[in-house]
Amino acid sequence: MEILQQLSTTAQVWAEAEEFIRLFHRENPGSGDPRDRLAAVRQELEDTGTYRHTHEELVHGARVAWRNSNRCIGRLYWNSLRVRDRRELTGGDEIAAECFEHLRDATNGGRVRPTITVFAPETPDRPGPLIWSEQLIRYAGYGDHPSVTVGDPRNRELTEALRERGWPGGPGTPFDLLPLVVQGCDDKPRWFEVPADAVLEVPIEHPDDDHWTDWGLRWHAVPAISNMCLEIGGIHYPAAPFNGWYMGTEIGARNLGDEDRYHLLPGVARRMGLDTSNDRSLWKDRALVELNRAVLHSFDRAGVTIADHHTESRRFLTHLEREERRGREVGADWSWIVPPISGSATPVFHRTYEDRQQNPAYVHHEGAEDRARGRDLV
Ligand code: ARG
Predict the structure, then answer these.
(1) Which distant-in-sequence residues (6+ apart) come within 8 Å of 54 by Cβ?
(2) Distance CA 39, CA 35 (A)
(3) Of 175, 250, 254, best ligand 1 pocket probe by most atoms within 8 Å of the beta carbon
(4) Are 137 and 224 in contact (CB under 8 A)?
(5) Does any domain span residue 158?
(6) What is the pLDDT of residue 2?
(7) 313/307 Cα distance (integer angstroms)
(8) How many domains does the chain contain in total?
(9) Helix, strand, coil: what percent of the chain each, to 5?
(10) Tens digits of per-residue pLDDT, 100-149?
């Protein structure tokens, strides 16, 4: 039974490997005839049940996985993703240390650089490492209910689980850094305090209202997703944190605005003196716009890369045209591509997309959400 199962997984890996190797050679004309490489991969698979990507295959695979991310509006620059090849690392502490180095490197003093760090793959004889945290940088959420939470309610359960596992907690501000949770191969998950010098943050202020400064709002410069599995040609890299730069609405509309996140629209409206007793004053809409202006203004002032949703929408259409010219189909998920404010004022709203899944890809594996919430943290 086991042998049969092994055979069928090998067949599956081979099918995906073959497709990827052909794609790699098609898109990298300098890389020659794929036949030799295909034969070598096939032999390695038969001998070991897995195969090792060349550095160039890994780089291209990670970039194409970005190109295939149907929910991402920022794909125009997919081919310039910087790839840090750390496949030799399997231990929790060395992986955590490299994640922090990733942050320093990607932050680049504010000129944010899209970057991925790839750690050890899964193999037939051991699982790959895992980063439980959904992003390298997360803010704690304290309190037993979303509505009374200090900090980010999204991370409430993780914060509580960490405290039960010995994390002393932060100073108790709404923006305390959570430790990073990493599980090495054949190890249990452990937490690592994120060094302050690895995290650049931007104080949020409003261009026309000085009082916002006293409010103490802030957000971090770099969004680095860390709980998606990079899949290339049948090989799984479960720990492969990657980052781009922020689009303002992610922070100004969703993170700070959503009712189950920082829920700041009532506070913004109060500061603006708006009538919040009636939906039809459009106080939420007006507060959203000002919050988003504040985010863009603050990042600009701090010299930190951030895109606005109008520019990023135009870039996405350029990406579609460019890919079409190269004869490639771009999959996209309308409900994720269209910005959460002023959708119809951006060109990405006024068309449809094919939400077709292609490989290589970044994939949420089963249990990723539970792990990010700290469920079953041992
Ligand atoms: N929306 C997420 C956040 O607000 C980040 C997702 C990735 N975003 C990006 N611009 N690459 O933290």
Answers:
(1) none
(2) 6
(3) 250
(4) yes
(5) yes
(6) 74
(7) 10
(8) 1
(9) 45, 15, 40
(10) 999 999 999 999 999 999 999 999 999 999 999 999 999 999 998 888 89
Q: Name the active-site residue from 37, 67, 75, 156.
A: 75
For the domain that residue 194 is a member of, what is the CATH number?
Answer: 3.90.1230.10
99 is in an annotated binding site: no
The bridge status of strand 201-203 relative to strand 361-363 is: unpaired
pLDDT in tens, 141-186: 999 888 889 999 999 999 999 999 999 999 999 999 999 999 999 9
Distance CA 303, CA 254 (A): 22
Please confirm, yes or no, whether 250 is among the known catalytic residues.
Answer: yes
Within a domain: 6:
no
Catalytic residue among 167, 212, 245, 283: 245
Average pLDDT for residues 43-58, to the nearest whole number? 97
Residue of 231, 283, 243 whose CA lies nearest to 137: 243
| Residue ranges around ligand 1 (CB below 6 Å) | 74, 223, 225, 244, 246-247, 250, 255
For residue range 188-214, what is the model confidence (pLDDT) as tens digits? 999 999 999 999 999 999 999 999 999
Nearest atom in ligand 1 to the alpha carbon of residue 114 is 11
- Residue 84 placed within a domain: no
Rounded to 5°, angle at Cα 77 from 72 and 80: 125
Closest residue by Cα to residue 232 from 30, 44, 36, 67? 67
Domain around 306:
130-353+362-372
Query: What's the start-to-end Cα distance of the chain, in Å?
Result: 32
Residue 287 lies in a domain: yes
CB pairs under 8 A, 24+ apart, for 25-29?
A: 27/60, 27/64, 28/56, 28/60
- Contact 265/288 with Cβ under 8 angstroms? yes
